Amino acid sequence: MMPQAPKAGNLVVIGAGMASGRMLEHLFETAPDAWNVTLFNAEPRGNYNRLMLSPVLSGEKTYEQIVTHDAGWYAAHGVDCRFGEAVVKIDRANRVVYSNQGGAPYDKLVIATGSAPFIIPVPGKDLKGVVTYRDLEDTNAMIAAARPGATAVVIGGGLLGLEAAAGMAARGASVTVIHLMGHLMERQLDPSAGYLLQKDLERRGITVHCHGATKAILGKTHVEAVLLEDGTVYPADLVCMAVGIRPETRIATDAHLEVERGILVNDRMQTSDPAIFALGECVQFENQLFGLVAPLYDQAKVLAATLAGQVAAFRPVQTATRLKVTGVELFSAGDFAEGPGREDIVFRDPGRGVYKRLVIEGDRLLGAVMYGDTADGAWFFSQIKDGTDISGHRDTLIFGPAFQGGSQADPLAAVAALPPEAEICGCNGVCKGKIIAAIQDGAVTLDAVRAQTKASSSCGTCTGLVEQVMALTLGEGFRTNANPPVCQCTQHSHDDVRRLIRAGGLKSIPAVMQELGWKTAGGCATCRPALNYYLLADWPLEYRDDRQSRFVNERNHANIQKDGTYSVVPRMWGGVTTPAELRAIADAADRYNVPMVKVTGGQRIDLLGVKKEDLPAIWADLNAAGMVSGHAYSKGLRTVKTCVGSEFCRFGTQDSTGLGIKLEKLLWGSWTPAKVKLGVSGCPRNCAEATCKDIGVVCVDSGFEISVAGAAGMEVKQTEPLCKVATETEAMEVIAAFIQLYRENARYLHRIYKWVAKVGLDWVRAQMADPANRKALYDRFLVSQQVYQSDPWAEHAAADQRGKWAALADLTLEAAE
Amino acid sequence: MSGGFDSWIDIGALEDIPSAGARVVKTAQGCVAVFRTANDQVFALDDRCPHKGGPLSEGIVHGTAVTCPLHAWVFSLETGQAQGADAGTVATYPVRVADGRILLDGRRLARRVAA
Predict the structure, then answer these.
(1) Which of A205, A306, A366, A669 reaches 20 to 30 Å from A506, CA-CA?
(2) Which residues of A touch B16 (CB under 8 A)?
(3) What CATH superfamily classification does A9-116+247-307 receive?
(4) Is there a contact between A279 and A265 (Cβ–Cβ < 8 Å)?
(5) pLDDT digits (tens, 9 = 90+) for A646-673
(6) B9 chain-A contacts, CB cut-off 8 A
(7) Between these two residues, A55 and B66, which has the higher pLDDT value?
(8) Going by C-beta distance under 8 Å and a sequence separation of 6 or more, which residues neighbour residue A358?
(9) Which CATH superfamily is domain A636-790 in?
(10) Do A741 and A767 form a contact (C-beta atoms < 8 A)?
(11) What number of helices (H) and strands (E) belong to chain B?
């Protein structure tokens, strides 16, 4: 036991949120033995980083990763934790706090009850399936509801509402945001940035309805839909109300403390009762309320000092806002309302979706709104906070710090140009100089910098900046560690697993799990398909495909539909078919009572609604007519879409149809990290839409332009040029070699565009530019094809295999006895 | 059934089910999924995910759990309980292996029909 020092008395804290948690940290640092601390929390857990609920919702983090104070921390500081106990009464006369489970006497009391979400008083607000976005329970409710195919409506297009929407959309739910105002995040963004944000969200499949007033939430016991005043109805399995928060002041009001909108405090965080203090979102200071974390942490510092007997005063400062939605770059700070005497500097780059607006009054920068490129946000923010005289550099101000004399090509230049006092981490008020000092004192990993400075430990949006400061300070010695583990079965990232499989010569799933220390016995549905792919890609001759580690579609060589039936798509080379093939398809559709026959986007025909036990027979029929599996279900080569090219088209420059067929015959049957679709267009009119495919070929008079990394799904992206070649043979070698490069290096489930974004197109070009390397890649592709280019339908349609597709036993009669 | 000294129904050989896989048994009340784990344990559950009716027999079997192929809910094969954040239960049935044959308890199946 540690020696007991004399304590000043009992300190009771109501609420274990981020503000009180930070206050306790400071208090234990400055006066570790001053108080016996009792901590009440209505939630059945301690302090976690509420700002990180959004990454938990989107699946990028787990709850365990966002815990700030674990049981060990509370124990080490002797905190009496009363978690799951809501405080019901403060007896000020006797200085006792009562929860539903008993009392606790105090000498000093801290109220940190935070805020409560607004519930808009519409019919149906109490239905099951209506949640707010405040704590882990809300987050878990949304995770449970946000299944692919589910529909969710978020009421409120502010910071929280959009994070909730993006998180649920990332999990596959179809999400609609209803926003009362004319543009999203109107308190932080001007209409232009709001528009870009809306476009970005819509590109992710989120529907945005502005000027939308909710009239009622519909449903019997569980929510079913949301009705707007204008008559629009959105179906909903879940409704998240994120229209705002109000300070949670009930306990203070009941105790007759002075309360207006929030609990009134002075600059020492003292309430109208000198023995009672308050901090966080529940307080009101000089007519202001506080919702962002930075001023709350300032309050925590002040209150800790006050409780330690020191003198300190709270002064609210300006705060900046970033949205925590991966892939959305948004920053706003200061005051950006228009007004007399105010001028704007605006920069737009519509192609890149970049928008920047600075609001200036006299020689001072008042506000900044940035969208799409927010790298200079911290620099602008420091200019706003410091009231810097900008008259000398007003001409180049909008181009940011890199342009204030110096080169701007280096991506690190913007960070290098920041002065030591520039704020990097807004949440925790950590400046660049403090981070550099910590690095120089030996904090050489991101975690160490976080632990020592708290930079990037709250909302995490400045992680990139902190890493840049580390890169600048450490030079070559710095490596980012932004690779998350494959799944909960392992610590290793995808890249590490791939490297270790090769380095260790691991050639089976059990070998990988054993040697790399898998934490589960048989892996899970996330890692097993990934490992199966990595092994078959790296060891085509030695590894045997593990069918039981395949997702159902690849195991059954057909796409499962929501009713458990399957869809069957025969290959049509380059989208070309014949009357005989069409007859065979029609016959098969008749014979197996196929409910729907549909032409696909990849220029072939889909037979939907086939029963599992009929699959081998329908395949056999299609095989007999000369057709093979179209692999419309695989992480592999799907289709090569073509136009009619020079054979028929008056504009065609080359035989695009012929090249498409040759490519498909070369590439079919190959397994890849994610699906691969090609397009070959006979001229730059691009009728085969080749420039939004994973790989596109556009024929020109002088040869073939090959471009890669397009996308036309959740994201839409044009391909980027890889190279131009003169002959069909070269085109085929380049494309096969490129696919092999992708097969050997990409993370499982990463489409080509994601992989190229990660490794950089320059690296890819360099790999492909070396003829020896290219040839070696091509040869390795052909080796793999020797094994994997075979029709799975023929294999499973064989007479001795068919039984496996039917039921093991039929007890229909026995069970009915 | 002949004999009648017990209610166990022979539904097939252990080898008829792939290791870490499943096959279905048809009954008048819908399919029962019979799972074989990598360690040759055998479990029988309703072949219907309580979430959206997905065929659990088509899921990836890992340890003594299966992941539904439609929306990745994970169920314990031993208890039929959904794992993690999901809530739901799948009915389980007594099943055992004797001399390489899989035996399913007919009484429980019959009770399921009556229910």
Answers:
(1) A669
(2) 808
(3) FAD/NAD(P)-binding domain (3.50.50.60)
(4) yes
(5) 988 999 999 999 999 999 999 999 999 9
(6) 809, 811, 814
(7) B66
(8) A344, A345, A346, A365, A367, A368, A380, A397, A398
(9) Sulfite Reductase Hemoprotein, domain 1 (3.30.413.10)
(10) yes
(11) 1, 10
Residue numbers of B between 21 and 60 with CB closer than 8 Å to A: 21, 23-29, 31, 34, 37-38, 51-55, 58-60
Per-residue pLDDT tens over the stretch A407-451:
444 556 667 777 888 778 877 778 889 999 998 888 887 878 887
Could you tell me which residues come within 8 angstroms of residue A470 by beta carbon, excluding any fewer than 6 positions away? A435, A439, A444, A446, A449, A478
What span, in angstroms and rounded, lies between the C-alpha atoms of A207 and A344?
A: 31
Q: Are A68 and A47 in contact (CB under 8 A)?
A: yes
Residue A714 amino acid letter: M
Out of A138-142, A168-172, A490-494, A559-563, which region has the weakest mean confidence (pLDDT)? A490-494
Q: Amino acid identity of A741? A: L
Q: Give, for B100, the enclosing helix (H) or strand (E).
A: none
B 68-107 → A contacts, CB under 8 A:
69-72, 74, 85-87, 104, 106
- Using the beta-carbon criterion (under 8 Å), do A552 and B28 form an inter-chain contact? no
Q: How far is B110 from chain A (nearest CA, A)?
A: 5
Cα dihedral A220, A226, A228, A232, rounded to 10, equals -110
B41: its two tokens: 């344990």
pLDDT class of B108 with cuts at 50, 70, 90: confident
Please tell me which of the candidates B16, B29, B86 has its beta carbon nearest to residue A815.
Answer: B29
Domain positions in chain A:
9-116+247-307, 119-243, 494-550, 636-790
Tens digits of residue pLDDT in A635-646: 999 999 999 999
Task: Return phi, psi of residue A394, to 5°.
Answer: -60, -35
Tokens (6 digits) for A19: 């503000």
Do A188 and A135 form a contact (C-beta atoms < 8 A)? no
Complete domains list, chain B, with CATH: 12-114 (2.102.10.10)
- Residue A455 vs residues A196, A408, A441, A469: alpha-carbon distances, Å: 29, 25, 15, 11
Do the domains A119-243 and A9-116+247-307 match in fold?
yes
The C-alpha torsion from A244 through A250 and A253 to A257, rounded to 10°, is: -80
Say what the pLDDT of residue A323 is.
67
